[in-house]
UniProtKB/TrEMBL annotation:
Species of origin: Candidatus Yanofskybacteria bacterium RIFCSPLOWO2_12_FULL_43_11b
Catalytic reactions on record: UTP + L-glutamine + ATP + H2O = CTP + L-glutamate + ADP + phosphate + 2 H(+); L-glutamine + H2O = L-glutamate + NH4(+); UTP + NH4(+) + ATP = CTP + ADP + phosphate + 2 H(+)
Binding site for Mg(2+): 72, 142
Taxon lineage: Bacteria, Candidatus Yanofskyibacteriota
Gene Ontology molecular function, alphabetical: ATP binding; CTP synthase activity; glutaminase activity; identical protein binding; metal ion binding
CDD domains: CTPS_N, GATase1_CTP_Synthase
Domain CTP synthase N-terminal: 4-268
Record-annotated Glutamine amidotransferase domain positions: 308-540
Family: Belongs to the CTP synthase family.
Miscellaneous note of the record: CTPSs have evolved a hybrid strategy for distinguishing between UTP and CTP. The overlapping regions of the product feedback inhibitory and substrate sites recognize a common feature in both compounds, the triphosphate moiety. To differentiate isosteric substrate and product pyrimidine rings, an additional pocket far from the expected kinase/ligase catalytic site, specifically recognizes the cytosine and ribose portions of the product inhibitor.
Protein name: CTP synthase
The enzyme's E.C. designation: 6.3.4.2
GO annotation, biological process: 'de novo' CTP biosynthetic process; pyrimidine nucleobase biosynthetic process
Activity control mechanisms: Allosterically activated by GTP, when glutamine is the substrate; GTP has no effect on the reaction when ammonia is the substrate. The allosteric effector GTP functions by stabilizing the protein conformation that binds the tetrahedral intermediate(s) formed during glutamine hydrolysis. Inhibited by the product CTP, via allosteric rather than competitive inhibition.
């Protein structure tokens, strides 16, 4: 096997865009004609990301083969424009679980099982499997967290050992932060020097440093880092904050020749150089100036005094992809569902906010908080003919709104919130009943790709341009088939159905400008180079 592995660690602090950095580097290598894939390692003990709160950890991204992962997997898919599967995500929890299960089954034949080599071997074997399955020339591996913390040290150790075992196939990259403190007025390199020393003490010398800062890294500082960190100054890549979109980052990186530097270290020449598609994308983003105003009614925004829309990352990106492809610049407004529940603020604030949008999305969610506000918003959008796109919980709440206000079932609800309602229009799937009873909640939802057959006369069929699609799921509840006739009789169109399980996948209101709800998450499959048809239809309607 001749695959090259690039391990990427973070320096100084988290949240500086390691995932996007890796995705951008991966894109560049792909455009040089190589087969590339990327892996994310999360140091958490959670076995997958499914049980993590999105306000704390960000969006839970679902792969086609149904693993609940970190949002960076979404970044890799969007930049590489290819599917990333479950083998490309691991956590401390998943690695330990596998090793401990093997130990329980006598898989280690009486040996003492230890962190080194058994955990580190497990990490290595998983990475080799990814390389083989993807027939990859390059595997980029993101080690979550920052160097020097206890949490990710086992993974750095695994990386170090891999370099020892296959010296010509492993390279280390450090994505580090260079602060410009106000009172000093210049960019400081010392924190990064310390980060490199910390890596050195783990037996690792970075081959490339990505210098994240608000400004570009100048020559003086490049040379300084070069001397103090023991590196060729050409391997220190400037990565300033960007004003435009993240999709410009690969173009920026190439200005510092990151692709060529990596290839040179592995003694490789480019197979090709084809940046045309990506450059065209960046050009079309830059030329999209006319705004289209989209509201997102959600609840996972706040951490203290800060708003972090990370929980809805894929939804935001899907809106952007569709808007740019139609020459528009998306302006996204965050609409706080909880505040819509108070009738005073509904009259003064909500109606104004909703009226101001060209289109409104109600994205996925769980639990009680904010749902009555979302239902109120959907009611307003339905009655006022404002384009609406409901995603997962969004479809469920739109069904509840329709049942309550059109079908005349005032207590219609989902059993997720009111298990005793006499009109459970949204209810638990049969396969979920036992799981919920046993509190077997991890990784047990309806997850990943499922087929959906489209109604021949539906808008969705027209937008997709095909009869059958496959989309990704993450939910426990469904439209209750016992109410389907009643809903349809009042004008709700079941526009998509799962052919095997006969489950409602898409609802539409044919008389409305654009009223579409999906039980799946189309946002997970939207890419900048291939925007999602339903998002495109939604934005088109919003523009109109
Ligand atoms: N809470 C709902 C369910 O579990 C919707 C989930 C979602 O929006 N992803 O079915």
């Amino acid at each position: 096997m001749n695959t090259k592995f690039i391990f990427v660690a973070g320096g100084v602090m988290s949240g500086i865009g390691k995932g996007v950095t890796i995705a951008s580097t991966a894109r560049i290598l792909k455009d040089y004609g190589f087969k590339v894939t990327a892996v994310k390692i999360d140091p958490y003990l959670n076995v997958d990301a499914g049980t993590m709160n999105p306000t704390e950890h960000g969006e839970v991204f679902v792969t086609d083969d149904g693993l609940e992962t970190d949002q960076d997997i979404g970044n890799y898919e969007r930049f590489l424009d290819q599917d990333i599967l479950r083998d490309n995500y691991m956590t401390t929890g998943s690695v330990y679980q596998a090793v401990i299960n093997r130990e329980r089954n006598l898989g280690y034949k009486g040996k003492c099982v230890e962190i080194i080599p058994h955990i580190t071997n497990e990490v290595r074997d998983r990475l080799l499997k990814v390389a083989k399955k993807n027939k990859a020339d390059f595997v980029l591996v993101e080690i979550g967290g920052t160097v020097g913390e206890y949490q990710n040290s086992t993974f750095l150790e695994a990386a170090r050992i891999m370099k020892l075992e296959m010296p010509r196939q492993v390279l280390f990259m450090l994505v580090s932060y260079f602060p410009i403190p106000k009172m000093v007025g210049e960019m400081k390199t010392k924190p990064t020097q310390h980060a490199v020393r910390t890596m050195n003490s783990a037996g690792i010398q970075p081959d490339i440093i990505i210098a994240r800062s608000s400004m570009p890294l100048d020559d003086v500082r490049k040379r300084k880092v070069s001397v103090f960190c023991n590196m060729d100054y050409r391997d220190i890549i400037s990565a300033p904050d960007i004003e435009g979109s993240i999709y410009e980052i690969p173009v920026n990186f190439e200005k510092d020749n990151i692709g060529r530097r990596i290839l040179k270290k592995f003694n490789l020449a480019p197979n090709q150089k084809n940046f045309r598609k990506w450059n065209n994308l960046v050009a079309s983003i830059k030329s999209s100036k006319m705004p289209v105003k989209i509201g997102i009614v959600g609840k996972y925004f706040g951490t203290g005094d800060f708003i972090l829309p990370d929980s809805y990352l894929s939804v935001i990106e899907a809106v952007k992809h569709a808007s740019w492809s139609l020459g528009r610049k998306p302006e996204i407004t965050w609409l706080d569902a909880e505040s819509y529940e108070k009738s005073a603020s509904w009259r003064t604030k909500a109606v104004e906010e909703l009226k101001n949008c060209h289109g409104v999305i109600v994205p996925g969610g769980f639990g009680k908080r904010g749902i009555e506000g979302k239902i109120k918003a959907i009611n307003y959008l339905r009655k006022n003919n404002i384009p609406f796109l409901g995603l997962c919980y969004g479809l469920q709440l739109a069904t509840i709104e329709f049942a309550r206000n059109v079908c005349g079932l005032p207590d219609a609800h989902t059993t997720e919130i009111n298990p005793k309602t006499s009109n459970p229009v949204i209810c638990t799937m049969a396969e979920q009943v036992e799981k919920i009873k046993e509190k077997n909640m991890g990784g047990s939802m309806r997850l990943g790709a499922c087929d959906c057959r489209l109604h021949p006369e539906s808008l969705s069929r027209k937008l997709y341009g095909t009869d059958k699609v496959s989309e990704r799921h993450r939910h426990r509840y469904e439209v209750n088939n016992n109410f389907r006739k009643q809903l349809e009789a009042e004008g709700l169109l079941v526009a998509g159905v799962n052919p095997k399980q006969n489950l409602v996948e898409i609802i539409e209101l044919p008389k409305h400008k654009f009223f579409v709800g999906t039980q799946f998450h189309p946002e997970f499959k939207s890419r900048p180079l291939s925007p999602h048809p339903l998002f495109k239809g939604f934005i088109q309607a919003a523009i109109r």
